Amino acid sequence: MGVGNSSCFFFFLMLSVLFLCFSLNIHLSFGADTISANQSLFGNQTIVSEGANFELGFFRPDGNLVLLDESSTPIWSTNLTSTTSNSLVAVLLDNGNFVLIDGPTSKQIIWQSFDYPTNTFLPGSKIGFNKRTDSNQVLTSWKNYEDPALGLFSLELDPNSSSQYFIKWNRSEDYYWTSGPWNGQIFSLVPEMRLNYIFNFSFVDNENESYFTYSLYNPSIISRLIMDVSGQIKQLTWLSSTQEWNLFWSQPRQQCEVYAFCGAFGTCSAFVQPFCNCLHGFTPKLVNDWQLNDHSGGCVRRTNLQCGSGNGEKDAFWVSPNMRVPERPQSFLVGSVAECESACLYNCSCTAYAYDSNGCSIWLGELLNLQQLSEDDVLGRTLYIRLAASEFSSAKNNKGIVIGAVVSSVAVLILLGFALVVIRRWRRKSVGGAKVVKGSLMVFGYKDLQNATKSFSEKLGGGGFGSVFKGTLPDSTVIAVKKLESISQGEKQFRTEVSTIGTIQHVNLVRLCGFCSEGTKKLLVYDYMPNGSLDSHLFLEKDSKVLDWRTRYQIALGTARGLAYLHEKCSECIIHCDIKPENILLDAQFCPKVADFGLAKLVGREFSRVLTTMRGTRGYLAPEWISGVAITTKADVYSYGMMLFEFLSGRRNSEHSEDGKVKFFLTWAASLTVRGDILSLLDHRLGGNADAEEVTRICRIACWCIQDDENQRPSMGLIVQILEGVLDVNLPPIPRSLQVFVDNQEHIFSSLNHPRARAHKHQSIP
């Protein structure tokens, strides 16, 4: 239905070829007793005998809203059977609801479009389950951006729990995303709903119905939620300044999390655009649909398989490394990769196989839900795709050239697009207050921020590039304003911060609301974090304000998730370069937000390293910084590990003693970790109140993170899985650089053979 000029129900989109009519009781008598040739009798028209003794016509139909095509053939109706009113009218309300009511002044709604949503969920409408009629209100995507026919993806209330929503694929019983249960304020797995100042969310569950609805605090804002053709639900708001819909949030966050988004034999990649590509040897089945972002048709083979053709030729297998493989394979007990290949080769229905530590797996028929993963993703497997032998004739000679050309082209396009976005934002000036620019950033005037901060009077903190002040906008939104003070370095820092964090959104990354650029005045505006930075809580002397273990563990996990997003999920890999407690901010619920991206480095996905000058903070710097070699994301992993030891102890990883010497807490911590005396590391202010398994997990992760050899350090994605309890972690070795500081080395290393050190659950860091 209509919001702005873009969101409407299907019958409004087809007004050029369709029309609406009401089968209402309007008396249209011919006033005669005769029907001539080519005349018709319909609706309430009648013919009356000359003496008015008899009248011929039709029984009065109910008051239904009917949709007819050009030939006047009914194609849709409200199907009301209980209404015989002569005064029914249809009204389009200001909230976008199209209603059928009993008379122009009546408030009794006979039928309403809000009860039958298509792909659009407007403020004031409901998505839920009617317990009396046993009917579900479902949001369903369009087939593609030009065809409003039913698509593959639908959002509906889980009938079993009645408090959480699922997104399903192809109307199956399986789902690939869930909102999590309603906790009284938000859905537990949609943290974006927390602390927003635009939407008022509510969930109702009573004897008649269960439903979710929302409203806007500011009724002048135009917003809608859609079940998009991408398989994601998207909350959009209308920007009158640019005449565009602005994406507020979407779930699931990553396109490749949508089940089978690229169709059969299509593979999804989060690192390049477009997301979907066909496997080698395949081509899009429906090219026009593919271009309209409808990949449901998937891909088809360029050359038919030879198996069963009787020509004596055999098929072969194309190697696809680092793949998320399809679900539900068939498993075989074989002794080698050759035997696994044979098991697939001699079954004409087999289209792929994999052989690794998980054994031999083969897949029959179409391959769905394939995803290209990063090289260090532990979930990646090598998949062998079955192709006709002729597909390999020239592939070996051209493979490197083709891949190189594609990667180079993609890199150039990404860089050009990135540059254009930054330039456009940079050139926008603030006139008469804040303006919204594309990407949801606000451009503020310097005087506006000066007024908001009361002339920068309440200082929250400071760093090498400037100070941070508390402020309040006219709408009562509390903000944190970073005022850059170093003119020589401020320009570079400013551009880095805006271009980096201004383009990304994650619940564990601080959100940049906007910026000001007026001559030498450079300011950045962030969401205000009422609980300040982590260091102010970790290193306090007062026991009354000490962070409990559960909060510390959740902060460690949230920080890891934020860094994993920067390293692995952004279109450009981002190395933060300065991870420390001062740069971890805490919101009202102590949810951690990685902040201060002034030193961050963007690394193209086609590169694994970046050479840069030394940066960061003493005590958290990885050894490779000092040696001057090109760094990777593992530099952040090292800093994170150093910080984990501080989570445990509530102490800085290096401290100055009374005699002026520096004491390294790290050496003692590493030795105790290997000995198994881990609880001795725990902050004494906790009084031993901590989960022993979680403490062990944190200690071991920390020791792996600070290994001298960066190849031995885990990725942040792997760390998240360990902290979540999905994977276990083996006992780490003591880093070589610390061994010289550890007494009784032989005793320490003998503990490596302790049975407790060999125990593991599902998977371990090698």
Can you walk me through this structure?
The chain is α+β, with helices and mostly antiparallel strands. The protein has 4 domains: 117-253, Agglutinin, subunit A (Orthogonal Prism); 266-393, no CATH class; 428-527, Phosphorylase Kinase, domain 1; 535-758, Transferase(Phosphotransferase) domain 1 (Transferase(Phosphotransferase), domain 1), CATH 1.10.510.10. It is 22% helix and 26% strand. It has an 8-stranded mixed beta sheet, with helices on one face. A 7-stranded mixed beta sheet has the order 31-32-36-37-35-34-33, sandwiched between helices. The protein has a 4-stranded antiparallel beta sheet with strand order 9-18-19-20, with no helix packed on it. Strand 6 and strand 7 (98-102) form a beta hairpin. The longest helix has 33 residues, at 395-427. It is globular. Mean pLDDT is 76; it is low at 1-30, 394-414, 419-432, 659-663 and 740-766. Keywords: ATP-binding, Cell membrane, Disulfide bond, Glycoprotein, Kinase, Lectin, Membrane, Nucleotide-binding, Phosphoprotein, Receptor, Serine/threonine-protein kinase, Signal, Transferase, Transmembrane, Transmembrane helix. ATP binds at residue 483. InterPro entries: Bulb-type_lectin_dom, Bulb-type_lectin_dom_sf, Kinase-like_dom_sf, Pan_app, Prot_kinase_dom, Protein_kinase_ATP_BS, S_locus_glycoprot_dom, Ser/Thr_kinase_AS. Residues 454-727 form the Protein kinase domain. It catalyses: L-threonyl-[protein] + ATP = O-phospho-L-threonyl-[protein] + ADP + H(+); L-seryl-[protein] + ATP = O-phospho-L-seryl-[protein] + ADP + H(+).
